[in-house]
Amino acid sequence: MNHKHNQHDVNPHFLSSTATSPKPIDMADVTTVIFDVGGVLMFIHEFRVTVMKRVLLSRGYDKQQVEDVLAQLPDFDAAYFAQHGNIVDWADEKQWLQTRCQFVAQQIIQASVLSRACDDVTALTDQLFMLSFDSPQYQLFDDTVPALQRLFPRFSLNVLSNATASLDWSLDLAGIRPYFEHVVISAYEQCEKPDAAIYHKALDRIGVMPSACVFIDDRIENVEAARALGMQAYHLDRSQGMTLLAFADVLLS
């Protein structure tokens, strides 16, 4: 998949007043920009389940058996969260991921015809956990840093994202945290977009009125929720050729 984008390849609806784009902004009132992360600033480079599959195949497990075991993960996750509740912080996320990897290790060893001394549930669990978590999931879009560099001198930049706790660390790994004054992540807040509560928490944390904010997200329901609270909001659909640099151009024009 090609994640490079030409800043001039912009859907005209991105800049016009339509059901999915706001009217031109009165920049005299805007002091703050709030970004979603996934689909706006970064994309998932490799899902953890893909890393686990790659590791298991490399260790010689049968491809069909690996795929059958990994196909059980949605049901495992549903049962896990029904029993343990939502992920609130890194401790919760770590426990979920370790239990998930243990489930995969147990299932694949039981299903496999291989018989090797190294096929120990604990050892395989540790390997799957360490490698799937250590492999960076998120990667910056090519226009993310240039857009942030352009906006940073003029606006307070902030993040509001539906994500687990480890996304917080991904901003450090990507090197973009210094651009943001506040990072609000749903796991810590016990609510998520498009629930109005998390927008209010973000506004309170930043210390700004909705009318002074521009919000950008790749999901239209989140954009509409922000508008309902009085924020200017942009729907950034990269699949339609929209870019973060074009968004920056609108704010700086």
TrEMBL record:
Name of one Pfam family that matches: Hydrolase
Recorded GO MF terms: hydrolase activity
Keyword annotations from UniProtKB, A to Z: Hydrolase
Residue spans crossing the bilayer: none
UniProt keyword Transcription present: no
Protein name according to UniProt: HAD-superfamily hydrolase
Organism field: Photobacterium aphoticum
